[in-house]
């Protein structure tokens, strides 16, 4: 016959959790280490991306031509801006094409694998600001955010 004390005791635990409440407060695990030898984004790349983005919006270039250097999200945004620009042209009857000239690229590095840059484009009529965010992915700098203001 079994004793009553044995019937009411909890089953033995083979894998006990720590009693401390700190086991719920673990820091997130670090991401893959960022290599120290990431090159600076070339200013020429930044200026060229700005000019090409302007050309996409102006209708003289397709977003597919920038495929390796921009994300699909950036491509969709530039195509939307192109559609709005074309509608404005249709309404106003403006068929002029602008040829931009890029000013110097201003580049900062908030993190080793991230660069934020801006370029001013000058046309005969006005100036445009082109801010962008570049990330070092697959051993190249890719624009993950870019617009023409």
Short note summarizing the structure:
The protein contains 3 helices and 5 strands; from the N terminus they run H-H-H-E-E-E-E-E.
**Percent of residues in beta strands:** 15-25%
Detail the poorly predicted runs: 20-30
Architecture per CATH nomenclature, i.e. the level-2 architecture? Roll
What is the third-level CATH name, the topology? Answer: Nuclear Transport Factor 2, Chain: A
For the secondary structure, the number of strands is: 5
Number of continuous helical runs: 3
- Rounded mean pLDDT is 84
Helix content: 25-40%
Question: How would you spell out the order of helices and strands?
Answer: HHHEEEEE
Shape: elongated
User: Radius of gyration from the CA trace?
Assistant: 27 Å
Number of domains: 1
Report on the structure:
- The structure is a single chain.
- The protein is of the alpha+beta class and 149 residues long.
- It has one domain (40-146): Roll (Nuclear Transport Factor 2, Chain: A).
- The protein has helices at 4-8, 43-58, 72-92; strands at 101-102, 106-111, 114-122, 127-137, 140-146.
- Strands 1, 2, 3, 4 and 5 form a 5-stranded antiparallel beta sheet that branches.
- A hairpin with a 2-residue loop joins β4 (127-137) and β5 (140-146).
- α2 (43-58) packs across α3 (72-92).
- The longest helix is centred in the middle third of the chain and has 21 residues, at 72-92.
- Residues 20-30 have low confidence and may be disordered.
Name some characteristics of this structure:
about 150 residues, alpha+beta, Nuclear Transport Factor 2, Chain: A, five-stranded antiparallel beta sheet, about 25% strand, elongated
């Amino acid at each position: 016959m079994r004793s009553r004390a044995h019937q009411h005791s909890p089953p033995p635990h083979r894998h006990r959790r720590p009693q401390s409440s700190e086991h719920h407060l673990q820091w997130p695990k670090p991401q893959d280490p960022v290599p120290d030898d990431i090159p600076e984004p070339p200013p020429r790349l930044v200026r060229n991306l700005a000019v090409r983005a302007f050309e996409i919006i102006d209708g003289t270039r397709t977003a597919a031509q920038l495929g390796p250097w921009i994300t699909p999200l950036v491509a969709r945004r530039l195509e939307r801006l192109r559609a709005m620009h074309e509608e404005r042209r249709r309404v106003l009857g403006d068929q002029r094409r602008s040829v931009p000239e890029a000013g110097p690229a201003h580049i900062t590095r908030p993190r080793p694998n991230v660069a934020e840059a801006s370029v001013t484009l000058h046309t005969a009529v006005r100036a445009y600001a082109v801010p962008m965010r570049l990330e070092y992915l697959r051993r190249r700098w890719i624009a993950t955010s870019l617009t023409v203001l």
